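stage 2 :: seqdesign
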């Protein structure tokens, strides 16, 4: 499974794609997506999660557990749409709806209206929306962050390398007998 942010009337909505087909209770990919979602939210400064499951027949239970864990760590609204009965019951069994800003809606329009009216303080400003790469899966964001961190490490190494190169140049001069 992956999440793709889209802009719907000025609201960041995550669409699901590539449904997880894992039957295991420990789906590593969905655990990774949960971590990527957390990091994405922190970097992008989006103050809510609105996921449109688009009536997926099955939603990986590991992914749902990751979302429940995120809800414990983050004090932001969690709003879902397009969930079928089975994943809804799963979330309800963990008292997902007990939190004031956690809701499940049957339509995306209802969810957006709820966010814009009841939870309007959480809506992102235009500056935040401008930084979001819409249409790009958050798993790509995770890869880019890893590459950026790797490049930052390479730059630090490059800063140290010139000293080593200078030593080699001095060695070449020693061949001239000086």
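stage 2 :: out
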């Amino acid at each position: 499974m992956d999440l793709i942010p889209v802009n719907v009337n000025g609201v960041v909505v995550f669409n699901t794609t590539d449904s997880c087909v894992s039957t295991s209770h420990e789906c590593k990919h969905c655990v990774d997506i949960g971590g990527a979602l957390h990091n994405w939210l922190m970097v992008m400064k989006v103050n809510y999660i609105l996921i449109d499951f688009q009536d997926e027949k099955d939603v990986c239970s590991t992914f749902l557990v990751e979302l429940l864990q995120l809800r414990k760590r983050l004090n932001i609204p969690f709003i879902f749409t397009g969930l079928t009965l089975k994943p809804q019951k799963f979330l309800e069994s963990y008292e997902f709806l007990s939190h004031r800003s956690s809701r499940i809606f049957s339509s995306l329009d209802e969810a957006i209206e709820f966010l814009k009216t009841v939870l309007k303080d959480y809506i992102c400003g235009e500056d935040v929306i401008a930084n979001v790469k819409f249409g790009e899966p958050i798993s790509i964001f995770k890869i880019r962050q890893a590459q950026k961190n790797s490049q930052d490490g390479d730059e630090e190494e490059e800063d140290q390398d010139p000293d080593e190169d200078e030593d080699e140049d001095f060695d070449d001069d020693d061949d001239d007998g000086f």
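stage 3 :: structure notes
- The chain has six helices and five strands.
- Strands lie at 2-8, 11-17, 49-52, 78-81, 102-105.
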